[in-house]
Every structure is written in structure tokens, then in C-alpha cells.
């Protein structure tokens, strides 16, 4: 696989022989990535809350029962 050429900050890199991204493709990719970011942030928040609950409750029943 030949390496991609260097791209300027305002353009997306493509491999040699590939066509540049169309505005529609960029919009679609941005929409999908934004949706994935939101989904993953929500998953992280849920996982963080679950972990905090486990850590908070981890001492229940441990230790001397006298």
C-alpha cells in the first residue's frame, strides 16, 4: 500500500490514485463521527456511574461481623 501524501490542515488526505472527498462524503462522515462521539460519551458516563456504584458498595459485608 503506497503511503498517503501529506495533506494541508483544510483538506482530507487520500491515497495515490484515489479521488478527493466530495462535500457530501465529508458531511456524511462528519455526521457519523459526531453520532459516534455522542454514543461513546453516553456509554462512558453510564460506565463511570456503574463503576462508582461498585466502588461505593464494595465494602458492604466485608470485615468483622461482630
> Low-confidence stretches at least 5 residues in length (pLDDT < 50)?
none
What percentage of the residues does DSSP assign to strands (E)?
under 5%
Query: What share of residues is helical?
Result: 40-55%
Q: What is the H/E order?
A: H
Helical segment tally? 1
- Largest sheet, described in full? none
List keywords for this structure.
single chain; 66 residues; mainly alpha; 1 helix; elongated
Tell me what the structure shows:
53% of the residues lie in helices and 0% in strands. By secondary structure, it is mainly alpha-helical. The chain has a domain at 23-55. The relative contact order is 0.07. The model has no long low-confidence stretch (mean pLDDT 85).
Strands, helices and their partners?
Blueprint: H1 23-57
Summary of the model, kept short:
With 66 residues, the protein is mainly α.
